[in-house]
Amino acid sequence: xxxxxxxxxxxxxxxxxxxxxxxxxxxxxxxxxxxxxxxxxxxxxxxxxxxxxxxxxxxxxxxxxxxxxxxxxxxxxxxxxxxxxxxxxxxxxxxxxxxxxxxxxxxxxxxxxxxxxxxxxxxxxxxxxxxxxxxxxxxxxxxxxxxxxxxxxxxxxxxxxxxxxxxxxxxxxxxxxxxxxxxxxxxxxxxxxxxxxxx
Length: 199
Known about the structure:
Shape: elongated
Number of helices: 8
Number of strands: 4
Largest sheet: 4 strands, mixed
Strand content: 5-15%
């Protein structure tokens, strides 16, 4: 759980480092100026501080991260900028801004932390119960078999936890789509953006 919280507070730095995202401080092109202005307008509509805006090299994608709603990062890829029209890009930005407004980064971090804690705890409980059963009530000795069994249960519970996290994340994605439509005043741009991404 502590690891999840640490990753949340380091999320912006880690995202910049792993993707090579370059934060736009002073726009060098009209494209960068439009990006900054669009995110600023969306932030004002959402009632939050304007997040950092970054561009990174990659296929059509975008993400938002950050520990709080007023200290976030929204990044878009060069592939997305090249493959979509401005209204479609605006819809994607609104989707990411909705994640920020909804606090999805914090929510998913807390969920993952809780799931990790339960995986860690129940894997050890099940390993101990199995070992006690195999020992037929004799004195318990924690050895290599216990640690191997623990690893097996961690794998099993970890897969189940991942499925739960993915299902919850999917719901948050739908909510962000709806939030984008609300910020834009119409679902049309979001629909067109999803068609492009789906294609």
